[in-house]
Design a protein that fits this description.
Blueprint (H helix, E strand, L loop, with lengths): L8 H4 L2 H13 L4 H12 L6 H9 L3 H19 L2 E11 L25 H14 L3 E6 L8 H13 L9 E5 L5 H9 L5 E2 L7 H7 L8 H5 L1 H7 L5 E4 L7 H19 L5 E3 L20 H14 L4 E4 L5 H8 L5 E3 L30 H10 L3 E3 L3 H4 L4 H9 L3 H19 L3 H14 L6 H15 L5
Parallel strand pairs: 1-2, 1-8, 1-9, 2-3, 4-5, 5-6, 6-7, 7-8
Helix pairs in contact: 2-4, 2-12, 3-5, 4-12, 4-13, 5-13, 6-7, 15-19, 18-19, 18-20
The structure holds S-adenosylmethionine.
S-adenosylmethionine (SAM) binds next to loops.
């Protein structure tokens, strides 16, 4: 039976409840009155239940769909302003004991070069990322308790945090590693990680079991209950996501929101972020194998409906998506994007020869970080390298209450502008710098309090003189 408070995967991601939800949404796809009521509730910016959000996702009334997109855009502006937080993935190891049918890291793939970075190689990769201007990383590994144990991950995090750079250190390391034990989550927390990210891949249990035929990841319950263990281990920022294309998107959408409802119901705080990856071509994987791929229109609708359903949850878009697609969905609710990404182990230091690729999947957006920053500003977005909240301990429910009270506008905008200034001074091309300086001059006027504006001006002068945080 559906019970968001239960800690059992099959209760909080309950198949019958999802099927009923999809049926309800289908029956009401042109129910103008109900859709209108749900939109009115959504306008209060307190979120929607999975059932309500599913109705919006299925809505087939053109004018109401337009309202959905407009509202998503407005909610994104209200909660996140025009800032986009920048990050980069860092692949540490592609050893993997799982048999995931969609992932080139799968154990039986013999033509992928297996690599695990040494601590020196990690330093070289991180230096390359710092030289681009990155301050926030997401580390990625395959699952292999022997070749890539938790001790290796912890040591790598320490290596990264200990590194100095002429223009400042990496301030936040998010972690995307396989589901693990409470004890290991506690160790990750102690190592000072930011968000623990784990994609569910699919919430559909039957499909999940087929898609993960072998290895520890086969255990659906263990995987689905990972965020509960992470929370028990003290990690209060968790990032959810599904790999769109594996199963029917309506099912995944409902599952994702039920997962968020569960975390909110049990721990008082929903996911910090939701990622929306779509399956990509990869070595030894035929994406045509998966016939649930979603087109760009559906993708945009999903992003908009997630934004409306969970207004306080950040949304992450990776370089799996092309520039064109990113342009289309950014304003509908995305708050974080990666830029200048490489998805191979060691890829920031060395370009790989095609035949020895260890890439996890094809990257669609291959632009440099500077090009991405420049493009964001052309669209009036402020690229932000800010990690201030995490340094000051404003994570989890404390962060959420700051966000909910609207205060975030008074501290995020200033921090975004100051970190952008650092980026412009230290890394930007001439053109990017000129655009950025003009943007800072304009945006500073939008800081509500004069006192804060003054502090920001002083800090900007300090940065200009070469002082760094
Ligand atoms: N090994 C970790 C685990 O088991 O969750 C996660 C790390 S993996 C490097 C990160 C994510 O890449 C996976 O969770 C999966 O969703 C995604 N991924 C795998 N194959 C992919 C493909 N062919 N296209 C796009 N994304 C893919």
């Amino acid at each position: 039976m559906y019970d968001p408070k239960s800690k059992h995967a099959e209760d909080f991601i309950n198949h019958e409840e999802i099927m009923e939800t999809l049926d309800y949404a289908r029956k009401n796809k042109t129910n103008r009155e109900l859709i209108g009521e749900i939109l009115e509730k959504a306008k209060k910016r307190k979120g929607l239940s999975h059932r309500e959000a599913a109705v919006l996702l299925d809505c087939e009334l053109d004018d109401k769909n337009q309202e959905i997109f407009t509202l998503a855009e407005q909610i994104k502006k209200d909660f996140y302003g025009n800032r986009i937080v920048m990050f980069a993935p860092l692949y540490l190891s592609n050893y993997c004991v799982n048999g995931c049918l969609y992932c080139p890291y799968h154990l039986k793939n013999k033509h992928i070069a297996r690599k695990k970075l040494t601590q020196d190689e990690i330093r070289a990769e991180v230096t390359a990322l710092q030289d681009m201007g990155h301050k926030r990383l997401a580390i990625e590994t395959g699952e292999d308790p022997v070749n890539c144990p938790i001790e290796y991950v912890l040591e790598s995090i320490k290596t990264i945090y200990d590194m100095k750079h002429k223009n400042g250190a990496i301030r936040r390391v998010n972690v995307n590693i396989a589901a693990t034990t409470v004890e290991n989550y506690r160790k990750l927390k102690e190592a000072g990680i930011g968000t623990y990210i784990l994609f569910q891949e699919t919430y559909h249990k039957e499909s999940y079991l087929k898609l993960h035929p072998t290895g520890p990841k086969h255990n659906y319950d263990y995987h689905t209950e990972a965020m509960d263990r992470a929370m028990e281990g003290g990690i209060d920022d968790v990032g959810c996501g599904v790999l769109f294309g594996l199963e029917l998107y309506r099912y995944e959408f409902a599952g994702l929101l039920m997962h968020a409802e569960h975390l909110e119901a049990v721990y008082g705080v929903g996911p910090h972020t939701i990622s929306v990856p779509r399956i990509k071509k990869a070595d030894d994987i035929d994406p045509d194998m998966f016939d649930n791929g979603i087109d760009d229109d559906t993708f945009a609708k999903i992003v908009a409906c997630i934004r409306i359903a969970v207004p306080y949850t950040g949304m992450i878009l990776s370089t799996r998506e092309s520039k064109k697609c990113r342009e289309r969905v950014l304003h509908l609710g995305i708050s974080q994007i990666s830029g200048g990404s490489r998805t191979s182990v060691g890829g920031y230091v060395e370009e790989e020869a095609e035949d020895e690729s260890s890439e996890q999947f094809d990257v669609s957006d291959k632009r440099t970080l500077d090009e991405v920053v420049n493009w964001l500003m052309d669209m009036e977005y402020i690229p932000s390298f800010c990690t201030a909240c995490y340094r000051e301990g404003r994570t989890g429910d404390r962060f959420m209450s700051l966000c909910k009270s609207g205060q975030i506008q008074n501290c995020c905008l200033p921090n975004a502008l100051m970190t952008l200034k650092e980026y412009l001074m230290d890394y930007a091309s001439q053109d990017t710098r000129e655009k950025g300086e003009a943007m800072i001059a304009r945006e500073i006027q939008n800081i509500p309090k004069e006192k804060v504006r003054q502090i920001v001006r002083e800090h900007l002068e300090e940065i200009e003189k070469g002082n760094r945080d």
